[in-house]
Specification:
Blueprint lengths: L1 E8 L2 E8 L9 E10 L2 H5 L11 E2 L3 E9 L11 E5 L7 E5 L3 E3 L6 H5 L2 H11 L10 E5 L4 H13 L2 E6 L2 H8 L5 E4 L6 H7 L5 E6 L6 H6 L1 E9 L13 H6 L3 E4 L7 H14 L1 H5 L7 E6 L3 H10 L5 E5 L2
Parallel strand pairs: 9-10, 9-12, 10-11, 12-13, 13-14, 15-16
Antiparallel strand pairs: 1-2, 1-4, 3-5, 3-7, 3-16, 5-6, 6-8
Helix pairs in contact: 3-4
């Protein structure tokens, strides 16, 4: 079968298309015939140590497809079922998925929309609900709201009943985000937005802030928080890994700072996150309250061009490839 692999060359990630044997399902696994797969910045750019590549490996972390084969001990699925899942190697014609990382695909979704869900939406879910404790009526700040995870945060935040503030360096992107529920749009590249957040919230500040930008946005995210506010760190689009912390603000306002990464999760932790997401968020996807936003879909053999599009920073929502 055809399969895209990823490797590091001169400090950058490079994609190469290989012919490899089709995978076989072991106990507790299913094999999917992949129909669409999603691009994720952490894997494809490998800009931080958590995503570094010691050796070439199959590329692609999530997508959607039809059940092709079942391993021993698997129940709840049958050949032909439409399934969404997370696993290494989704930029291939077939992929093996642990059964605990697979869940049914709602009929209302296209293959591309379904492929956009797993990594971005489960990451957003973990930040907002289990760890971020977001509640209806609270203020949510999303710094870097136009990314795949950023758009998912806006959508889950609105379904939760929060009021959502988003930042982006592009006024055009912010206009697009209003269509998925963004309440307050702040044009800012990096930092400089904290005074506007405080103004928008009547001086209260955001109850939960999501830093998808990196070190340049961190100080403003911190300064934007309300008393007992929470700050999640997940992205480094700006490439800045360090930032100063206002310890007096953290201490005086009883703030909580935490990080979210899929790279360090073990199988049990991934399974727990997926179960929670399916329980708490997928009903809103199934009934139409949430529809994944697709920036652009590429053909399977255009994956390098899709990666270049991601590197350009032009996207709003998710970039996907069709695997037909």
């Amino acid at each position: 079968m055809k399969s895209w692999w990823i490797r590091t060359e001169s400090g950058k990630t490079v994609l190469e298309l290989r012919d490899v044997p089709a995978p076989q399902a072991k106990r507790g696994e299913i094999v999917l015939r992949v129909r669409a797969a999603s691009l994720n910045r952490g894997e494809l750019l490998a800009s931080i140590g958590l995503h570094s590549l010691d050796a070439p490996r199959p590329a692609g972390g999530d997508g959607a497809g039809e059940v092709h084969a079942l391993g021993a001990g698997v129940s709840g699925f049958k050949p032909g079922d439409r399934v969404i899942g997370r696993s290494r190697g989704f930029f291939s014609e077939y992929v093996v998925v642990p059964v605990e990382q697979a869940f049914p695909m709602p009929q209302r979704l296209t293959w591309e929309q379904a492929a956009a869900i797993p990594t971005a939406f489960i990451t957003a879910y973990e930040m907002l609900l289990p760890h971020g404790k977001l509640k209806a009526g609270e203020w949510l700040l999303v710094a870097g709201a136009s990314s795949g995870v950023g758009v998912a945060c806006v959508q889950i935040g609105k379904v939760t009943g929060a009021k959502v503030i988003g930042t982006s360096g592009s006024s055009k992107k912010l206009e697009q985000l209003k269509d998925v529920g963004l309440d307050v749009a702040l044009q800012a590249r990096g930092g400089g937005f904290a005074p506007k957040v405080l103004e928008a919230t009547g001086g209260q500040g955001a109850n939960l802030a999501i830093d998808l930008v990196g070190g340049t946005a961190f100080p403003d995210c911190l300064a934007s928080l309300a008393k007992q506010g929470r700050l999640a760190i997940v992205g480094y689009v700006d490439g800045v890994m360090k930032a100063e912390i206002d310890l007096e603000a953290v201490h005086g306002k009883r703030l909580r700072i935490f990080g979210i990464s899929n790279a360090a999760l073990n199988a049990a932790e991934r399974a727990e996150a997926t179960r929670g997401f399916v329980r708490d968020v997928m009903p809103a996807v199934a009934d139409g309250r949430i529809t994944p936003v697709i920036d652009r879909a590429f053909a399977f053999d255009e994956l390098p061009a899709a990666k270049a599009h991601m590197e350009s920073g032009a996207q709003v929502g998710k970039i996907v490839v069709r695997v037909q």
